[in-house]
Structures are given as structure tokens and as C-alpha cells.
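Figure 2 data, in text form.
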Amino acid sequence: MSVSRTLLAAFLSAHALAGLAQQSTVRTVATFAGGCFWCMEPPYDALPGVISTTSGYMGGSKRNPTYEEVTSGATGHAEVVQVVYDPGKVSYEKLLEVFWRNVDPTVRDRQFCDIGSQYRTSVFYHTEEQKRLAEASKAALAKTKPFKDSIVTPVARAGEFWPAEDYHQDFYIKNPVRYKFYRTGCGRDARLKQLWGSVPH
């Protein structure tokens, strides 16, 4: 075999191995309900190790619900964000930490200006290990929280996930002015600062 062919074979072999390494990236799913899903995508998108976020619906009875059906409160779904992440780069515990700091866990069936069970908070676990970690995180927070009110956010088994309509995905990027107006007008950051002492970004 000539030197050029040897080099070519080595190059192709290295390229194939690199491609295999990329394909073998471990992907794990986590799902959180934190009120308006528009506001739950940004903190996870900014987290190293997160591969993707998708706004959607979980916890209800109707198959393939529409946004209008969910917001009516009739289907039983909650607005959620489903996070696909690499556990080698970011831990589930870190995802939980980000979740708590971006919600008001002291109220039931509402978040900020949005009222109804569709805006409830919840940690939806996909595995028994996620359940264990979520319950431990909640218990630890109950002891160290900087506010007096009780934490009422449940840890619940994940059901079927239904992605929201395309126009809801990455809404904060597609419609930054409208997003900022909504977030500010809804009092989200003001309440988060009141609860946690700072506004997460």
C-alpha cells in the first residue's frame, strides 16, 4: 500500500471514529412544568450540556391536545418543557436546581399572572432515579428555602408528552419583544426576585 493510501485510510478511519463518538453521545430526557413554557426554555437552553428544549403538554387525558384546548383547562394537561441533555456534561440535580430557581413553588394551579391547572408546577420523573433525586432536591429545598411558605410543587410520574405547536417553540427567540413584554407584565421576574433574592438568567 502506498504512503498516500495509508494516510487516506488513516484519515477515513479517524473520521469514522469521530462520527461514531458524536453518535454515541448519551441523551437523557427530563420534563418540568413551570407555568408558561415560553419562560422555561431560556434557562435550560443557556445551560451547557443541554442538547434541546421542547415546549409541550403533559399530565392530561386527551391525546394530541391543541394549545387552545390545554389553555381552556379542560384537558388536564400542564404546559411543560422537555429537556434533552447529556448527563456526562450536566447532571439531573443541576436541572432540578435551575427548575426551582425559575418557578414559584409555593402556589397551586397558577404561576405568576397565569391562573389554572394548566400552569401548575411539577417535576415529571421518567425513571425511579429521577424520582429519588427530585424528592431529595425538594426535601433539601424545604430545609434551606429563603422564604417562609411551604413548597407545594409535586413530583409526579411522567405521562405522554405532546409537543406544542411550532410557533411556541423558541418563542423568546422568534418574538423577543412580545416575550419580554409578557414576562415583565406577568410579574415573573419580580416574584422570582422576591422569592429567591435574585432573578435567574
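Caption note: The longest strand covers residues 50-58.
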